[in-house]
Amino acid sequence: MDTSAHIFSFYPFDPQIIVLFVVLFLLLICSALVSGSETSFFSLSPANINTIRKHHSKRSKAILDLLAKQDYLLATVLIANNLVNICIVMLCDNIIDRLGTFLSPVWAFVIKVVIVTFLLLLFGEIMPKIFAAYNPLRFARFVSVPLSGLVKVFKPFATVLIRSSNKFNEIVARKKVNISMDELSNAIEITGNQTAEEKQMLSGIVNFVNTEVQEIMKLRMDIVALDIADTFVHVKEVIIQSGFSRIPVYEENLDDIRGVLYVKDMLPYIGEGEDFDWQKYLRKPYFVPEHKKINDLLEEFQNDKVHMAIVVDEYGATQGLVSLEDILEEIVGEITDESDVEEPTYYKKLDENNYIFDGKAHLNDFERVVGLEEDYFKDVRGGAETVAGLMLELKRDFLRKGEYVSSRGVLFTVEALEGRRISKVRVNIKR
Predict the structure, then answer these.
(1) pLDDT score recorded for residue 287
(2) E strand or H helix at 112, and its extent?
(3) What strand order describes the sheet that includes 410-418?
(4) What pairing do the DSSP bridges indicate for beta strands 246-251 and 410-418?
(5) pLDDT interval class at 112 (50, 70, 90)
(6) No. of H helices and E strands in the chain?
(7) End-to-end CA distance of the chain, in Å?
(8) What distance in Å separates the CA atoms of residue 329 and residue 205, rounded to the nearest whole number?
(9) Is 274 strand, coil or helix?
(10) What average pLDDT does this structure show over 323-349?
(11) Are 10 and 96 within 8 A, CB to CB?
């Protein structure tokens, strides 16, 4: 008894079925080439790439171009492979339906799945990938030119796919970082066997990735800078008085920084007169946005061998200045050298609960000095970064000498003004 008769019954032979088999064969070849392309390109060793660079053929150039755009290469391979495989599935279903009919829908589903899976895995995935893995250079050269054409054809779709993937990765990465930062902060708080200095350093490391440049920069009003029209005599006076090793140089105002003067570049010319052309020794300034994360800036400083950057806002106006030392101090605390004074100059402690602070003192430094937890004024500070800025944020208006504002048990009184700027603030802490 023929059991196949109870499973499948054949239709009369249709000559068009031959065309469909030829198309299926071509699609399987395309699937094999696309699948093998992924394996071959990402299996190329440094030695293979050096070999490719030595040959100036069209195929070698195509391979190097594809490797330079790996995101688009991978996206194109995935798009093309899925399209071809979908076509193979649909064509196999059509061929089987033209050959005959299954007497049971269950058998129809099982047989079609087995056949299609076998064809795709064996001829479209396993065999080409094994061959490509053992012969990556040979396979890559064979498919390089047609694959370059596919990259151009699918570029709009690949761009959408890459941007969507990058956005998703950013969201996931940000979530992971925030979770880990919270966990580390809690761990530091409940650990009792560290000194205050150790806890401060650990907290600095934990908060490092979330700190923006604007939080640690030297404000615009505190920048020591030179006018490009200054004489060399004046330049030497500023160098001696400031004690800085790098000084920004502007033209007309601080929003037009033209360069940075390195003091060490002037040492061989210290005896020159006021007509000395010191401007030709200016170095190119390094600009960064105010919202840049300091961990990213530290990496840029290391890669570009830069020690100082000019901080600008979205309109290109100078907001401040940040140095490598400022970044490192966020981790290890205040760094002092022989030119620094023993005590910080931005505050004076009167007694346990009373202080005099410079209005330009940063809120983070203020909180640390008076013993408040970090971001103590987070809910009321708005965009303020300094003690004076916090007072203006709380008052919502200019303050006169003697006026005061209070928040969360801290009383701020205007001690001195310079024009409309709050220069000194008396602080009383209600403990």
Answers:
(1) 93
(2) helix 105-121
(3) 347-349, 354-358, 421-429, 410-418, 404-407
(4) unpaired
(5) confident
(6) 16, 14
(7) 98
(8) 11
(9) coil
(10) 69
(11) no
